[in-house]
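seq:
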Amino acid sequence: MSAYLVLASIGALLALLIQGRFSPAVLFTSWAVGYVLLGVVEQQALLNSFSNPALITLLVLLLVSLALERSPLLDRFSDALLKGRESMASLRLMGVTATLSAFLNNTAVVGSLLGVISRQRYIPASRLLIPLSYASIFGGVTTLVGTSTNLVVNSFVVNAGLPALGMFQFAAVGVPVALLCLLGLLFSARLLPRHSMQDREVTQPYFLEAQVMQGSPLIGRSIETNQLRSLDGLFLLELVRRERLISPVSPDEILLEGDILVFTGEVEKVQALQRFPGLQVFGAQADDLLASNLVEVVISNESELAKRTLREVDFRTMFNAGVVGIRRGQRRLTGQLGQIPLKVGDSLLLAVGADFTQHRNIDRNFHILNGTPLSPKLSNRQSLFAFTGFGAVIGLSALGWVPLLNGLLILLAALLLCRILTLSELRRRFPFELMLIIGSALTVAKALESSGGAALVADTMRSLFDGYGVYGAFIGVFLITLVLTETVTNNAAAALAFPIGLSTAQAFGADPMPFIMAVAFGASACFMVPFGYQTHLMVYSPGRYRMLDYLKAGLPISLLYSAGVIALVPVMFPF
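struct:
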């Protein structure tokens, strides 16, 4: 298979990733297997990719993080963080988030604070959640374990036969860039909307669906006669009749059996629909659950619901809950809600049964915004043991006394022996998709290299930046990675950009380290759209954001971040 055909196939892979119809795990796995079957790479190369030490380190780190994210540490002082003036409260929140994200999984940090910030009444959540997500990125880029992207890049470094990256090798650039961006975020956060704070009187609008059932007295009467336009806290948006959308809905519209009414309204007002006989609230048998607690959740990045519709899954059996409403930022969802593919970050309003929190798949699929916590918190002794052990592993690894993987494996075994973690929890939360993405991406990178495709791109880069020298090529690699991470996921961006960066360094006869850093920092530079980074999606609906909000707050930060990286990397890592 020629270099040009491999590059064409990579272009097709990128197009499909941007389209978003298929998950990155499916696409990268398919491409990796295809290259093996076509003889572009050897079968052993595929197997070696999945036994990469840096990949295994990342997987074990994520499993250890399952215990750390259950610590009550954040809950205990989060209330104190958000008191006082907005600017100081925001600075304290971002500083703590960045510090924690330097060592803990940033998804876990954001997930732990998401519900607390959404429920507090001091500052509108819309002024805090995007800064929370951005700050987790700033902290993550300062250490090897701060973000999965750095560990993904490290897996490519090891696979290329280069020395593994050190624990604090990123800090020389990452810390100054993080401080610069945190200060910039104090000003750009002022551009974020100031939505009304969520309390008992003011709630966020959901999109609700109700169906006119057989025998309902509503049939044959108009919307106006049935008094469906004058509901307290609910507004009738549209009507779906036999796959045909009627919007806006006329007051004289006569209801028929099977009509689906789509409302927008407040969480607490959904019970108002119960007084209409023969009108069933959306969700399989959700009506009998409405007397129970209403729980608001956000679909997590690990959820098996992503890219599936509620009609495709047996939601009631899986979770003992009925979906009452769906919300996606400030976007207006249209059509039958049960046929809309769900996305990571969507908020669902659930009417839950008594044993909802006992279902073992809850914590994998959702971040909870209100109601009872999904996972039991660690005791003080367990929390101290977990954090002390993790700190010891990081310290010993930084000093070079114990390899990071060895230390993490010992800590994982200790957490299991002390029953802080269980085997069933590890099975339930194992990052299988991430393993497929990275292992397959290593094989795709090998195909790009062995076919000559990476060298071809490097030669093109050299001709384009010939007048600007190696520094111009370095900037080019960083900008390519930045554009990729704003377009596809951060890990996919690192996978596609790394072989280009390494080959470009070789073409210029330069040290590969500044180009490796360009890929690592560029792959975390997602600030202007919510879809390239999982924590951005997590805060999208709870913050009631629009795409424009990310652009307004993120563009200045992206420029600051890029300027800092481009200026500092060549100084700290000479060509």
